[in-house]
Every structure is written in C-alpha cells, then in structure tokens.
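Progress note, sequence design subtask.
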C-alpha cells in the first residue's frame, strides 16, 4: 500500500487495479481473528490458524506486486536517462531486471527446506503398515515420536503423544497428563507388575518403544517427556544408576515388529510373563 502512494516515481502504479484492496482486507481479517481467538481461547481453535497461512499468501502477492513496480521504475528511469551522449542505459536497466529475476529464481535453492510447508513426514512405512493390518479398535502406548504419525498413517488410536498434548481444555489435559505420567512410570519401572497394571488399566494392545528409550539422554533430550515431573527425573535417575526398566527383559520374547529404531511389543505376551 505504501508504494501505491508514489505514482510519480512508480509509473506502473497507475495500472494497479482496485482489487488489490483484498490483500489489505485479508490481512486485517486475519489479524482480527487472531486477536479474537485469543480472547476466547480454543473456542475458535488455535489463534495461529487464522494468520499463519493467510498472511503468507498476502506477503507473497504483495511482494510480487512491489517487486514488479520497482523493476518497472528502474527500466523507466534508465530509458529517460538514455541520450546520444549516454549510450547503453536501457541495456543497463534490462540487465538489472534480469539479474534481479535470476536472483529471485535461484535464491530458494540456497534454503534447505523451501517452500516451508510445515508438513510432517512419516518415514517408518513398515511400522505404519503393520499397525494398519491390526484390528481397528486397538490402542497403542508409546512415548516415541512415531506415535504422532500412527493415527494418520495407520488409522489406529494411541494413548498419548506429543502432537495431541496441546491443553485445549483443563479437563482434557488433566486426563492426558495423567495418562502420560502413568505411561512414563510404567515404561521405566523396574517392577514388571507395574507395567502389567498399566496395560490392564488402559486396555493397551501394543507397546511401541524407541530402541534408544533406555538411555538417560533420551529422556533428557525430550522436552515433552521432561515436562512430566517428577516421574521423568526419577526415570532418568534410575537409568543413570543402571537400574533398568523391567520391560527391557521382555523385549526379545514379546516383540512382534522391529526396525533399526523401534520395536513393538505385544501386551498379551507381556501380561503372561513372569514378574521375576
């Protein structure tokens, strides 16, 4: 909008149609809904849903218009400066435009992740296929990042996962938090009876484990797990003292699926395993 105020400097401004006001309107509506969503938090979903994508669209289109106006102004200025005594000015203008165009086209190649869509990519295809073949009503317990992908790529339910841990409502999050704490306690308990009790309490069918889950650094580096205190710190302390969880002893006998990074345990097998 600021560039449109200088038609004498930017000749192409006169060609800009009134429909561009839609960009301003979209930006204002997005910001307004963003503020309103904060005022009635979570009743209108997440506030960023009303600004994150729409403002990207506004910025892209507005930037394209602004760049076009500026490049045209450069060409026009070079043409006005051209005279019998000053040769090559129009060529200079075109060269500048060409260089800018090349820079705009090639610059994204320098970014590792462009365009940034924020899409999550699931890479454990075999794991997703395994769970997809299981009954529809199974429930999976896991602290693994892969638990985030299972409802989408396998169509199966998980007890908890980081992706679903946003505290939309107090009652919802209290129940979610209790589940997460119980899972951490059961997974890292040196007493197998505690893991069995957890399975019965929540009717767990499968237990998905990261193979690195029993290193102290695994807990320390996981901000999601570390927010559940004191159970996270207690589990980490036991691992540092080489007090290994009881569930480690049943991995070989109860494993039903395994990759280099994860292993899936059948809880029916775990339930009939001796506590000793």
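Output:
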């Amino acid at each position: 909008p600021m560039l449109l105020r200088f038609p004498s400097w930017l000749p192409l401004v006169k060609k800009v149609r009134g429909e561009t006001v839609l960009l301003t309107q979209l930006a204002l509506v997005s910001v307004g809904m963003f503020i309103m969503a904060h005022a009635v938090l979570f009743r209108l979903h997440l506030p960023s849903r009303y600004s994150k994508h729409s403002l990207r669209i506004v910025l892209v289109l507005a930037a394209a218009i602004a760049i076009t106006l500026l490049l045209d102004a450069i060409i026009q200025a070079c043409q006005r400066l051209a005279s019998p005594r000053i040769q090559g000015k129009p060529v200079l203008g075109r060269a500048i435009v060409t260089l800018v165009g090349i820079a705009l086209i090639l610059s994204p190649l320098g970014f590792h992740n462009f365009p940034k869509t924020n899409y999550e990519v699931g890479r454990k295809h075999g794991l997703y296929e395994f769970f997809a073949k299981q009954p529809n009503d199974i429930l999976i317990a896991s602290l693994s990042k892969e638990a985030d992908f299972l409802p989408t790529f396998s169509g199966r339910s998980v007890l908890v996962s980081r992706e679903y841990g946003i505290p939309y409502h107090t009652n919802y999050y209290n129940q979610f938090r209790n589940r997460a704490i119980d899972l951490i306690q059961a997974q890292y308990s040196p007493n197998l009876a505690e893991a069995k009790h957890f399975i019965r309490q929540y009717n767990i069918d499968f237990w998905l484990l990261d193979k690195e889950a029993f290193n102290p650094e695994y807990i320390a580096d996981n901000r999601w797990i570390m927010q559940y205190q004191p159970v996270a710190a207690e589990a980490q302390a036991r691992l540092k003292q080489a007090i290994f969880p009881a569930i480690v002893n049943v991995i070989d006998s109860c494993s039903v699926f395994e990759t280099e990074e994860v292993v899936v345990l059948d809880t029916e097998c775990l339930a009939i395993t001796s506590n000793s």
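The longest helix spans residues 52-81. Work on this subtask will continue into the next period as scheduled.
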